[in-house]
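Let us work through a complete example step by step.
Step 1: write down the sequence.
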Amino acid sequence: MTALLEHEDFDGALKDTDDWLATNPDLRTRALIYNCRTWIRWGAGDKAGALAENDQVRQTVAGADEKQKRGPMLHYWWDKAYLEAEA
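Step 2: predict the structure and record it as tokens.
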């Protein structure tokens, strides 16, 4: 994924995250993947897509205990603030 991003192949990087999600990773890893997808879409100039991916972080951990939620939700709120602050 990183090499694809270095070449601005955002579609390829998203495909890599699709493949990663297909492995049915644990909750925290799924939240991390959606966080990666947020930044991939933002880098590609797709702010609406980035906001949607960021919301997937929130939805992924919605039913988790507070310990599991903390890190992903910090990323969710930071990224939401960055995205909404951008004109």
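Step 3: interpret the result. The chain has a mean pLDDT of 95.
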